[in-house]
Amino acid sequence: MISVEKLKQMTHAIAHRGPDGEGYWMNEAGIIGLGHRRLSIIDLSEKASQPMHYLNRYTISYNGEIYNYIEVKQLLEQKGYSFQSQSDTEVILAAYDCWKEDCLTYFDGMFAFALWDEKEKTLFAARDRFGEKPFYYFQDEEQFLFASEIKALWTAGIKKEKNDTFLLYYLADGQLFNKHNPSETFYENIFTLPAASYLNYNIYKNDFIVKRWWDIEKESIQVVSENEATEKLFHLLSSSVSKRLRSDVEIGNSLSGGLDSSSILAMIYQQGNGIKPKTFSAVFPGFKKDESEFISKVLSQYPSQNFTITPAADDFSNDLEVFLYHHEQPVQSASVYLQYKVFQLAKQNGIKVLLDGQGADEILGGYTKYLHWYLQELVSKGKFKLAATERRLLQSNYPSLQWNWRNYMAAFTPYLTAHQLQKKGFKAAAFHPDIDPDFSFHAFSKEYVYKPPVHKLNDMLYYDTMQNTLPELLRYADINSMAHGVEVRLPFLNHELAQFIFSLPASFKIKGGFTKWLLRKTMNNFLPADICWRKDKTGYEPPQQQWMQQPMLQEQIHEARKKLVNAEVLMKTVLEKPILPKAAHEANNYDWRYLCAASLL
User: Fold this and answer.
1) What is the residue extent of each domain of the chain?
2) What is the CATH number of domain 4-212?
3) CB 435 within 8 A of CB 572
4) What does the pLDDT look like over 241-269, one tens digit per residue?
5) Which of 33, 145, 533, 572 would give a disulfide with 26, using CB separation of 3.0 to 4.6 Å?
6) What are φ and ψ of residue 173, in 5° steps?
7) pLDDT tens, 358-404?
8) How far apart are CA 445 and CA 426, in angstroms?
9) What is the DSSP string of 388-435?
10) In what order do the strands lie in the sheet with 136-139?
C-alpha cells in the first residue's frame, strides 16, 4: 500500500533528477500519494514547490518544462484564472481545469506529469509529443506505481524481471522497441506511457485508458518556394530557441562542431539579448573523428567560454557500473557515454540547463542511410534523370552511398522490401551463432521485428522520429542529463517546426548532394561555410574501437560473456572466441551489447 515512507524511498532513488528539494503528499483517504524531487529552473521560490495544489481540487507531480507557459498563462488569465506563482507547473493545473485533456495541445514543451483530480477521483498522466520526458509504471490488482526512472519502482519492491524477447532482439540486432506494443520495456512487468499519449485512471471504477493525443502528419505536402521555406524555418527555429532560453538559472549549449549544435548557438546569438552561453564539447586529439577544428571555427564566429572533456578507456571502465545503473536499459554505443560526460562537465561548471541540437537528423534527413530512400522516391515517381543527377552528386559527397539494382527494385516494391528486411531480422534472432538456441526458441517473437514499407523519404523520417531512432536517443539524453541534475532542451523538437519540415517535399531535405539541405541553406549566412556545408560529420563518436582493445575493458567484456553464458543466454563457445572491437556506429557490435546486457541481469 502507499505510504509517505514508500514515497520517500522511491523519490530518494532518483534524487539525482531533483537535487534542489523534495515533497510528498497523500490525500485524506490515503488512496493516492505523490512524491517529487525538484530541479529548480523557473521560479526558484517555495511557491513553485511540488507536489503542487490548485483550487482545492487538483494536485500534480511534474517533470519538464512548458516553454510557452507565459503565453498559455495569458490565455488563462483572460478566462479568469489567477496564479500564486511564476511557475509553469501552476499553468498546467489551470490549463487542465479549463480544457481537461485538450490542454496538452496548447503546450510547447517536454513533460511527463501525473495530476490527481480529488473531485473525480481520477489520475490523469501525460507525456510530451516526442517523449523527451519519461513515464514508467507498474500495475497489479493492488497498486499503480509510476516514476521517471525504473529504479524508483524497484525501490518500491517491484521485482526485476528481464524481458527475454527484448534481450534477444537487442543482442541479435541492437533493437530496443516493440512497434506493436510501444508500452513494453526491457523488463517484463514494467511499462512506459508512449510518447504523445495520456492515461486516465479512475481508481474506484478501476477504469484505465491510454490514448494517443498527437501525431505528425506526414502525408500533406505543401508547395512553397525556397525563400519561403528558409524564412519560415528561420522564424520557427528562432522562436523555438527564444522560448527555450526562458530560465531563472544560467543556460549553456552543447557544441559538437556539427551543423545542428552550431545552428543552435548561432540562433542564441541572433536573439539580440546579449546571452553568450558557456559551451561544452568532447574532443579527442589525434582521433580521426575529433571535432576540435570545427568547434574552433564556430567559436571564432560566436565567441564563448568553451569547456572540453576527453574521456579515456579507463574513465569508461571505471564509470561503467554507475553509467549503466543510471540507464537501466541497454545502450547502443559509447557515444551515449560521451554525452553523459558532457552533461557532467556542464554540471561541474555551474550549468543546470543545456540547449542541444538533437532531433534535427531525424526530421531533416541528416543520416546517410536516408540517401537511398530519397533516390528511391525519385525513381518511384519516374524522375529518372533527376535521380541519376542526385545520385552522382550524393556519391561525390558521401562515397559510402551504395546504389544498385536492388534499390531500383525496392523503389517499386516497398512491401516486398519491408518483408525481406523483416525476414533478415527473424534470421538474425533465430540463428545467431553466439546465442543459446534454447533461449532463442523460447524468446523468439515475430511481433518484435518491424520494418516499415517505405514509399517516400517521409515514411522513413516518420519511422525514425516517432517510432525508432529518436525515442531511443531521447531516453539516453534524459538519463544522461538528469543523472547530473542537468536539464537538456531541444529546439529542433518544437512541434510546429517538425510538422513544417514534414510538410515539405523530400527535395527540401536532401538536395544537390547534401543532407539537411534546408537547414544548411537557412544557416548559410550565419555559420562558417566549413560548418554549414560539412560532408564528413558522422555523429557524436568517441574512439570506442580503441577503448575495446584495452585490457581492463576486455576483461569486463569477458566477464559479461561469462555472466550471459551462466544465465543460459549465450553458448559456452563464445568464451573461446576473440573479442571483436568495433567503432561506435559499426554494425554487428555484439561485444558491446554483451557488455551492456550482462550488467542489467
Assistant:
1) 4-212, 226-360+466-532, 368-459, 544-599
2) 3.60.20.10
3) no
4) 999 999 999 999 999 999 999 999 999 99
5) 33
6) -140, 5
7) 999 999 999 999 999 999 999 999 999 999 999 999 999 999 898 88
8) 8
9) HHHHHHHHHH-TT----HHHHHHHH-HHHHHHHHHHHHHHHHHS-SSB
10) 144-147, 136-139, 191-192
